[in-house]
Specification:
The complex is a heterodimer of chains A (635) and B (248).
Chain A: H1 5-11, E1 38-44, H2 48-51, H3 55-66, E2 70-76, H4 80-88, E3 107-111, H5 118-127, E4 143-147, E5 163-165, H6 172-185, H7 191-199, E6 204-205, E7 210-214, E8 220-225, E9 234-235, E10 263-266, E11 268-269, H8 279-283, E12 288-289, H9 292-306, E13 310-314, H10 324-332, E14 343-345, H11 353-362, E15 369-375, H12 379-384, H13 391-403, E16 408-415, H14 422-440, E17 447-454, H15 471-485, E18 491-495, H16 498-508, H17 515-523, H18 537-546, H19 551-556, E19 570-571, H20 576-587, H21 625-628
Parallel strand pairs in A: 1-2, 1-3, 3-4, 4-5, 9-19, 10-13, 13-14, 15-16, 16-17, 17-18
Antiparallel strand pairs in A: 5-6, 7-8, 11-12
Helix pairs in contact in A: 5-17, 6-7, 9-10, 11-13, 13-14, 14-15, 15-16, 17-18
Chain B: E1 5-13, H1 22-35, E2 52-54, E3 63-73, H2 87-94, E4 102-110, H3 117-120, E5 121-131, H4 138-147, E6 152-157, E7 160-165, E8 170-177, E9 180-186, H5 194-201, E10 210-223, E11 226-228, H6 240-247
Parallel strand pairs in B: 3-10
Antiparallel strand pairs in B: 1-3, 1-4, 2-3, 5-9, 5-10, 6-7, 8-9, 10-11
The chains are: A alpha/beta (635), B alpha+beta (248).
Chain lengths: 635, 248
C-alpha cells in the first residue's frame, strides 16, 4: 500500500475541517521513496493547525529532503472524529504529503513542544500500527524518535521512544540518517544494534541503554548506562552559526487556516536575558544572530515566493536583535512587493518604549492590541525571576502604546513563583489598574487584558528545585486577583486552568515511573489534553493512584541540592553549579546581567561546546532596562 | 491605462483541493494574486482588504468545473499597444501561486457596473453522485419529484426551523448513470443545495440515499431569457477528465 488516499477521501466528507488532511501546501514535496533512502515521517502530535507552522519541523523537512540518502514527509494528529473513522475502517496514521501509511516509514520523528501532548504521542504511534512501548518493537517497525524542548527531560516518555535528539536538529538528523541507512543496507536485522549505533552519535539519547535505580524514599539513586555505546552524559547539539542554516527556504504555505499563518523568519536563536523561569532561554544558549543581510534576503524572497503580506521576525526576544529597526524599516519600505503593504510582527516584545516605537513603525494600520510580558507584579518578584523591568519601564511602554493609538494592551504574568507572597500577587492588580488609568488619558475605552498562568518549574532552569504551587494555592491566588479586578472597568482577567498546570508540572520534572501513568491515561481515552474540552484531570489523578504514585511528591515537593534529578544524565550545556548558584541568587533577590554585553559568568553553554555568542552589536540595545541599567544589579 | 478595471476569472476546483472551504479558496486567491504582483485594488479604511468578489459559495467537499471570481485592479492588464488581454500569459502568471486542482480556465475584462456574480447567477448545473439502497427506486423517485407540484424541505434559518417549498428551484433533473443524477438547481430567490435535493430523493425519514462525489458543472446567467455562462470556456480548454486525473 503506497497511498491510503482512495480510502481516506471516502471519510473526509464526514469530518470537521477536512482540508487539514489533504496536504497540497505550497513548498510541500512529493519525495521519491527508495530502498536505499531513509524515510522520515516528521510528526507533530497535535492538530494540523497547530503543527503545520512549526519551524523546527519545517527546517528538518527541507534539510532531509535535500539529502540524497533521505526523504521526509509530515504527519499531524488526526482530530477525534477522523481518528474514530480511521480506526473503524482499519486505516493507519498517514503522511499528508503522499498519504502513505506511517508504518511504512523508517523513522517516526516527533516534535514535542508541550508536555500535555504525551498521550497524543502514544496515540500517533499506536495509529501508525507500531507497538507503543519500544521494548515490544521488532526490526520491521519504524524507529521512534523525538526532539523539541520537552525532550530535555524525556524520562516520562522513555518507555515509548527509541531515541531522543537533544538541542538543535540541523546537523544531527543527517548523522542519524547515515546510521539508519547503514542498518537498512545491512539487512535491518537487530534493533538493538541500530540503537547502539544511534547512541554513539553526539546529542542522541537512547533511553533503553540506561538503567535507573531508586533510593528507599523514592528519589533516584543513579541513572547509569548499561551499554558501552551509551555515554555517561548526553550533551545537546548546538549549531555554531545560524548563517549557515538559512532555513526554511521554502516555507510551507497551507491551503487552509493555521495559527501563525504568515512568513516566519528566525532572526536569532538562544537568549541570555537570563529569566530564571524560562527553559527556552536556558536550553538554547548561546545567542546566535542571523546576519541582517540574510534576514532581509529571507524576508524579501519569502514574501515574493509565498504571497504572504505579513512576516514575523521570530526569536525569544526580537527587539534585542542588533539593528532591528533597520531590518524593520527595510521590510516595510521594500517597494519590490508592489502595491501591497507588508506588515511585520514581533511576537515577543520587550517591555520598553523603544520597542513600542518599533511596533508603531510596523503596525501602521491595525493597532488593535499590543502584548507585553512583565511576568510578575512587584519589582522584588521580578528580581527573583531576573526579569528586570522597572515599573517606570512598563508605564513608559504602555503610555507609548496608548498614546500612539493602541487601545488594548495585554500583559502576561506568572503566579506561583518562588518566594511569591500575596503582596506580589496583588501587585499584578495594582499594575493592571495603573495601566488602564494611563490608557484612559488617551482613550475613553482603553483596556488591559491580564493573562495569568501558573508557574511550572522546568528542567535545566534555576527553578528546577522548586516545589510547584498546588492547584488550591493557584486557585486562591487567581481568586485574589479576581476579587480585586472584576469590578474594574477596562480590566479583563484571564487565567490558565491550574489543573492543567498541575499535569504540566507532573510531566515537566517527572521520571520513568510516569510512563505507565501516561499509558493508562491514553488507554482510557485521554488524548488532546492540550485542549480544554478534552482535558480531564480526574483521569490523571486516578492513573497516579492506580500506579501508587503521589502527585504531591512529584509536583509540589522542593528538591534538595544533592538530589539526583531525572535528567542529570542529560545536558543542555549549563553547569549544575551555575544553576544552583543562580537559584541561591534568586532567593536572595539578586539579578544577573545579560552576558551578551557584559563579561561571561560561565554558565557552560559556550565554554563547554567551544561555541560563542554571535551578536552583531557590541553594545546593548537602546531603551531596555535590562540592556542599559542592569549593571546596577550585579551580584 | 489607469483607473479601475474589473476582471472576471473562471477556474476549476478538482481533486484533493475540493476539501478546502470557500474562505480557504478566498485566502488562496489573495496570496496567488499578490504572488503574481497583480495590482489588486484595496478597500479604504481601518483594515483594508482586496476587492475580490466570489460567486455562490461551493460547499466544502464539492468539485467544480465553473467557479468565478471578479477582481478590481488598479490598472489595465491588457497589452498597452494592442489593448488586448493576453489570457494565456495571465494564466501562466497566476498558476504557480495556486495549488494543484485550482486551475484558471478563462479570464476577461468586464464592464464596470456588471452585476455581481451573486446577483446574476440564477441557476447551477450539478452532477451528483449517489450511494445507498435508494438507488433501486431512483427512477421512480425522480419521476415522483418532477410530477409533484410541491417539494417541501425543512431547514434552519437564523436558528429557526423553517419549511420551504423548493419545487420551483428544481429546473431540471435526470438520471445520468447508475449512481448519478444531473440537476439544474435554481439559486434564487432561495436556492436548493445538492444535499437538500438528495434528501428529497430519499425515502421519507430513512435517508437511504447519500451523496458521493458532487460536482458543479456550470453556473448560469439569464440574458434575455437565454442562459449563458458568466465566462465561457475558450476552445481547447483543459477537458475535465484530464484535469481530474491531474488533481487527485
Amino acid at each position: 500500500m503506497t497511498s491510503i488516499w482512495p480510502q481516506l477521501e471516502q471519510l473526509l466528507p464526514r469530518v470537521a475541517k477536512p482540508a487539514r488532511y489533504i496536504g497540497c501546501e505550497q513548498g510541500a514535496v512529493n519525495p521519491e521513496h527508495h530502498p536505499d533512502r531513509v524515510s522520515w515521517l516528521l510528526t507533530y502530535p497535535d492538530t494540523y493547525e497547530i503543527g503545520l507552522p512549526n519551524q523546527g519541523l519545517q527546517i528538518l523537512y527541507e534539510i532531509l529532503n535535500e539529502r540524497s540518502d533521505a526523504v521526509a514527509e509530515r504527519a499531524y494528529a488526526p482530530w477525534t472524529d477522523l481518528e474514530a473513522l480511521l480506526r473503524a475502517n482499519g486505516l493507519p496514521l498517514f503522511s499528508v504529503d503522499t498519504h502513505r501509511p506511517a508504518g511504512d516509514f523508517d523513522v517516526l520523528a516527533f516534535n514535542l513542544s508541550a508536555e500535555l501532548v504525551y498521550t497524543n504521542l502514544l496515540n500517533c504511534i499506536d495509529l501508525a500500527g507500531v507497538p507503543v512501548r519500544s521494548a515490544d518493537r521488532r526490526p520491521e517497525h519504524p524507529l521512534v524518535g523525538a526532539g523539541g524542548h520537552c525532550t530535555f527531560n524525556p524520562e516520562p516518555i522513555a518507555d515509548f521512544v527509541d531515541f531522543v535528539a537533544l538541542g538543535d536538529g540541523e546537523e544531527v538528523v543527517g548523522e542519524i540518517t547515515e546510521v539508519v541507512a547503514a542498518w537498512k543496507a545491512a539487512g535491518r536485522r537487530d534493533r538493538a544494534e541500530v540503537l547502539r549505533a544511534l547512541a554513539r552519535i553526539d546529542g542522541v539519547y537512547v533511553p533503553s541503554l540506561y538503567e535507573v535505580t531508586y533510593l528507599d524514599d523514592g528519589r533516584i539513586d543513579a541513572v547509569v548506562p548499561v551499554d558501552a555505546a551509551a555515554p555517561g552524559r548526553v550533551e545537546k547539539r548546538t549549531i555554531a552559526d545560524l548563517a549557515e542554516w538559512p532555513y526554511p527556504k521554502r516555507q510551507l504555505v497551507p491551503v487552509t487556516e493555521v495559527v501563525h499563518d504568515r512568513l516566519n523568519v528566525e532572526v536569532f536563536r538562544g537568549c541570555t536575558r537570563g529569566c530564571r523561569f524560562c527553559q527556552a532561554g536556558m536550553v538554547t544558549r548561546p545567542v546566535r544572530e542571523r546576519p541582517a543581510d540574510q534576514v532581509r534576503h529571507m524576508i524579501s524572497t519569502g514574501l515574493r515566493r509565498t504571497g504572504y503580506d505579513e512576516v514575523a521576525l521570530t526569536s525569544l526576544s526580537t527587539a534585542d536583535f542588533s539593528g532591528i529597526d533597520d531590518v524593520v524599516r527595510a521590510t516595510i519600505e521594500d517597494e519590490s512587493m508592489g502595491c501591497t503593504n507588508v506588515s511585520v510582527s514581533l511576537p515577543s516584545l520587550r517591555v520598553d518604549a523603544f520597542t513600542v516605537g518599533i511596533a508603531a513603525q510596523i503596525q501602521r494600520a491595525r493597532r488593535t492590541g499590543l502584548t507585553f510580558a512583565p511576568e510578575a507584579g512587584t519589582w522584588r518578584m521580578r528580581q527573583v525571576i531576573n526579569k528586570l523591568i522597572t515599573e517606570e519601564d512598563l508605564y513608559a511602554a504602555v503610555e507609548s502604546a496608548y498614546s500612539q493609538g493602541w487601545r488594548r494592551v495585554k500583559l502576561y504574568f506568572l503566579t506561583g513563583l518562588p518566594t511569591e507572597t500575596d503582596e506580589d500577587t496583588l501587585g499584578i492588580a495594582a499594575l493592571a489598574k495603573q495601566v488602564v488609568a494611563i490608557g484612559r488619558r488617551y482613550h475613553k475605552n482603553a483596556s488591559v487584558t491580564i493573562s495569568v498562568g501558573g508557574f511550572v518549574p522546568k528542567p535545566f532552569t534555576p527553578f528546577q528545585w522548586f516545589g510547584q504551587n498546588t492547584v488550591a494555592e493557584l486557585h486562591r491566588k487567581v481568586g485574589l486577583l479576581r476579587d480585586l479586578l472584576h469590578h474594574e472597568r477596562g480590566v479583563d482577567l484571564k487565567w490558565h486552568d491550574p489543573k492543567a498546570t498541575l499535569i504540566e508540572g507532573l510531566m515537566s520534572r517527572g521520571d520513568r515511573r510516569l510512563g505507565p501513568v501516561i499509558e493508562t491515561v491514553w488507554r482510557r481515552g485521554g488524548t488532546f489534553q492540550e485542549w480544554s474540552e478534552h482535558f480531564d484531570v480526574e483521569r490523571w489523578l486516578q492513573a497516579m493512584d492506580d500506579h501508587g504514585l503521589s502527585m504531591d511528591w512529584y509536583v509540589h515537593r522542593h528538591r534538595a541540592g544533592d538530589e539526583v534529578l531525572p535528567w542529570d544524565h542529560l545536558s543542555a550545556g549549563l553547569h549544575k553549579d551555575f544553576l544552583w548558584q543562580d537559584w541561591r541568587d534568586a532567593l536572595a533577590e539578586l539579578g544577573l546581567p545579560d552576558c551578551r554585553w557584559t563579561p561571561c559568568y560561565d554558565c557552560g553553554a559556550c565554554t563547554g561546546y567551544g561555541v560563542e555568542h554571535i551578536v552583531a552589536s557590541a553594545t546593548p540595545p537602546a531603551g531596555g532596562s535590562q540592556g542599559t541599567g542592569q549593571l546596577v544589579f550585579l551580584r | 491605462m489607469s483607473g479601475r478595471h474589473l476582471y472576471r476569472i473562471r477556474f476549476s476546483k478538482l481533486g484533493k483541493i475540493r476539501f478546502t472551504s470557500h474562505r480557504d479558496v478566498a485566502r488562496l486567491w489573495e496570496r496567488a494574486l499578490r504572488r503574481a504582483a497583480i495590482p489588486v485594488a484595496y478597500t479604504e479604511g481601518f483594515a483594508p482588504h482586496p476587492k475580490l468578489s466570489f460567486g455562490l459559495a461551493l460547499p466544502t467537499g464539492h468539485e467544480s468545473l465553473g467557479e468565478y471570481l471578479d477582481i478590481e485592479i488598479t490598472r489595465s492588464l491588457a497589452d498597452p499597444d494592442t489593448g488586448v488581454l493576453d489570457v494565456d500569459a495571465l494564466i501562466a502568471r497566476l498558476d504557480p501561486g495556486l495549488p494543484v486542482g485550482l486551475d484558471v480556465q478563462a479570464a476577461a475584462e468586464i464592464a464596470p457596473g456588471t452585476a455581481s456574480l451573486q446577483q446574476a447567477v440564477v441557476c447551477c448545473t450539478w452532477r451528483i453522485g449517489l450511494q445507498g439502497s435508494g438507488l433501486r427506486q431512483l427512477d421512480e423517485r425522480i419521476e415522483e419529484v418532477l410530477a409533484s407540484e410541491h417539494a417541501v424541505v425543512t431547514r434552519e434559518r437564523k436558528g429557526q426551523q423553517v419549511t420551504d417549498d423548493v419545487r420551483a428551484a428544481i429546473v431540471a433533473l435526470e438520471r445520468s448513470g447508475d449512481a448519478e443524477v444531473v440537476a439544474d438547481l435554481a439559486t434564487q430567490p432561495r436556492g436548493l443545495r445538492p444535499s437538500e435535493l438528495i434528501a428529497l430523493l430519499s425515502a421519507p425519514a430513512s435517508s437511504d440515499l447519500e451523496e458521493s462525489r458532487v460536482m458543479r458543472l456550470h453556473q448560469w446567467l439569464s440574458i434575455d431569457g437565454a442562459r449563458e455562462e458568466p465566462l465561457p470556456l475558450p476552445p481547447g480548454a483543459t477537458s475535465a477528465p484530464h484535469a481530474e486525473v491531474r488533481a487527485s
